[in-house]
Design brief:
Oligomer: heterodimer
Radius of gyration of chain B: 38 Å
Strand content of chain B: 35-45%
CATH class of the largest domain in chain A: Mainly Alpha
Largest sheet of chain A: none
Low-confidence stretches of chain B: 67-186, 196-207, 210-216
Helix content of chain B: 10-25%
Largest sheet of chain B: 8 strands, antiparallel, barrel
Low-confidence stretches of chain A: 91-98
Distance between the termini of chain B: 98 Å
Structural class of chain B: alpha+beta
Number of domains of chain A: 2
Shape of chain B: elongated
Largest interface: A-B, 63 and 47 residues
Order of helices and strands of chain A: HHHHHHHHH
Distance between the termini of chain A: 51 Å
């Protein structure tokens, strides 16, 4: 079924079409939710995301890709969820964070699940900025708008997130050695 | 970080297997399949048809009652009397009565209704006075009896002859539940003959008399009446995208729902004796919708200006920043649509017992229409449709042209000059209410149950 037909039928509350859309996008949506909110909350946020997707599907303007629109709704739902849980509060680092780069091969050797495990260790505030910037490709202006923060805050949080990841990768490197 | 590309490559399209049962949890939270919007229309139509059917039944029932009376043979001047007690006529004959029936059948039998041969006893008839057919008043008092008598006035040359004629119910004529006696009274004076119009006065208690069509003036073929109508309704609407690749119509359907509709109107009727009627008047219709819009991805923008000053109070510089707050925008707006129409209707009215069945159809010309509220624009942003509102979008026509009005109703007599009207009606607008160049065609019709009164000028 074409996307447009699927969207039209979903908008008309056609349950079979909604199920089809769910089957097609659920693994992706769950992965996004998992990345932002962690494994414990991922399924709950995924349910919220789909309810919003079906609710606002009629507002999809056929501008840009449908998958991109679903990603956006899902990311927004994750951010709302984190805001509600007050998990976007940022704790600044203390001293002593590593500044030297880790070996690049380590990252390329890690699979997606291992990378997710590393991301999970980042505090939610930094993790959200990292996800938005590095994975989704938002620029700092967009992130600032999305999170209601200053661009400078977005930049600094990304830096902190990177440092967290470096530390995690260093730990991984040491274990391998 | 140089390795960030690896994160993106490995995680952007990353998927996670979904466990069973999650869909059921989502489905349980989804709204139920939307009810058909035509549903209220169905109930409305059913109500109208039931009402009309009930009125027809009542009308037919009354007409059936009258058919019994009208099946008696009529002389030049006859009076049908329905009488209530065992004494058939309380005030009638002066002269001796010569029965034309066998003496042994010469008794009133109350206990054998419908039995042929039931007659008025001679004694009973002898007790009565006055040959005049003045029994109308008395029989009025006695209405409700299960007997019917016909008093017929005959020719003048038959003066002094009186006969009581057995005209009892004949099996197969529908009189089984009555003792029916035809009493021919001969003679009657010319004055009495002239008084024959009492028949129609009397009959009018049972059914409209076509010879005395009260709504027409004396000697006039036409009658003028005025109707005042109003009532609740339902305004069904349809949306159709003008281009096939648009989902604008779906978005409009999802965000707008019917709330109420009503109409009032008045019309002048020129009614021909044949039953055909021309009507002209005005009709004001108002429909209310609810525009229900939620945008979970809405942002609110706030401009923040930070001014910096030196210790001595000198202004140094100002920093302006835009703060966008993520939020959900919820709009629940009552939209109002108003229409002012001129109906030009041809009607036909059929008397049914005491009531009158009325069928109406004809063109209806929309003079003007207006609208207030908000709808989604083609870019799916909420926009005002209120005329003269800043930023409003031009969507609707201000004049809709022709429509078709169809209605069927009943008239119930209330007083000499007033009748009650119940008229379910449907107004179908031929053209869309949206502008011709608008990317969506929206049709709005109206189904209503009009209740009102009619004033008879004649």
């Amino acid at each position: 079924m074409q996307d447009q037909e699927l969207i039209r039928r979903c908008g008309a509350n056609d349950r079979a079409a909604q199920r089809l859309l769910y089957d097609r996008f659920a693994p992706l949506v769950l992965a996004i939710c998992r990345r932002y909110t962690g494994p414990q909350q991922a399924e709950d946020v995924m349910q919220d995301s789909f309810i919003r997707i079906f609710q606002y599907l009629v507002q999809f303007k056929n501008e840009g890709s449908f998958e991109g629109w679903i990603r956006r709704v899902c990311v927004n739902t994750c951010i709302r969820h984190l805001e509600k849980a007050k998990r976007l509060t940022v704790d600044y680092f203390g001293e002593g964070m590593p500044d030297h780069p880790v070996e690049p091969d380590i990252i390329s050797r890690l699979n997606a699940n291992e990378l997710l495990t590393i991301i999970d260790k980042i505090p939610d505030g930094y993790k959200t900025v990292f996800n938005l910037s590095v994975i989704e490709g938002y620029n700092h202006k967009e992130i600032a708008q999305l999170l209601g923060i200053e661009e400078s805050s977005s930049r600094s949080q990304l830096t902190k997130a990177r440092k967290y990841i470096q530390r995690s990768l260093e730990a991984t490197q040491k274990v391998e050695l | 970080m140089k390795d960030e590309k690896i994160f993106r490559e490995k995680l952007y399209h990353h998927t996670v297997p979904v466990r069973e049962g999650l869909w059921e949890a989502i489905e349980a939270q989804l709204p139920k399949k939307e009810e058909r919007r035509a549903f209220p229309l169905f109930w409305f139509t059913l109500f109208g048809v039931t009402l009309l059917g009930g009125a027809l039944m009542i009308g037919l029932f009354n007409a059936e009652d009258n058919s019994i009376l009208s099946s008696f043979p009529k002389g030049n001047a006859s009076t049908h009397i329905t009488e209530t007690n065992n004494v058939p006529i309380t005030e009638v004959l002066n002269n001796p009565v010569k029965p034309t029936i066998p003496a042994n059948t010469n008794e009133t039998s109350e206990n054998s209704p419908g039995t042929p041969g039931t007659v008025i006893s001679n004694d009973a008839l002898r007790k009565t006075k006055s040959p005049k057919t003045s029994g109308t008043k008395n029989t009025n008092q006695n209405r409700g009896n299960n007997r019917a008598l016909t008093l017929s006035a005959g020719h003048e040359q038959m003066v002094n002859e009186e006969e009581v004629q057995l005209a009892t119910a004949t099996p197969g004529m529908g009189f089984n539940s009555r003792n029916d006696i035809n009493v021919s009274l001969l003679p009657l004076s010319a004055v009495e003959l002239n008084n024959a119009h009492t028949e129609s006065v009397f009959n009018s208690r049972f059914r409209p008399d076509p010879n005395c069509y009260k709504f027409a003036g004396p000697g006039s073929k036409f009658a003028i009446t005025a109707d005042l109508l109003g009532g609740p309704g339902f305004s069904p609407k349809t949306y159709e995208d003008n281009s096939s690749d648009s989902n604008y119509a779906d978005a409009r359907k999802a965000t707008e729902s019917n709330q109420y509709a009503w109409s009032v109107g008045a019309r002048i009727n020129l009614q021909h004796r044949s039953g055909f009627t021309g009507r002209i008047g005005f009709m004001y219709t108002q429909a209310g919708d609810i525009f229900d819009y939620t945008d979970s991805l809405a942002t609110q923008s706030t401009t923040r200006i930070d001014s910096f000053f030196a210790a001595d109070g000198t202004f140094l510089y100002a920093e302006t920043s835009q703060v966008l707050i993520l939020g959900t925008l919820i709009k629940k707006i009552h939209n109002t649509y108003r229409y002012f129409d001129i109906p030009l209707i041809l009607g036909y009215e059929v008397p049914l017992g005491r009531s009158t069945l009325m069928l109406n159809a004809g063109p209806i010309l929309n003079l003007t229409s207006s609208h207030e509220g908000q709808i989604l624009d083609p870019m799916l942003h909420p926009r005002s449709i209120t005329q003269d509102d800043p930023g409003s979008i031009d969507v609707y026509k201000t004049s809709l042209g022709l429509g078709i009005y169809v209605g069927a109703g009943m008239l119930f007599p209330l007083t000499d000059h007033l009748s009650g009207i119940v008229e379910p009606s449907f107004l179908y607008r031929l053209k869309p209410v949206t502008l011709d160049n608008y990317p969506l065609s929206e049709h709005r019709h109206y189904a209503g149950l009009n209740v009102g009164i009619r004033y008879h000028f004649n």
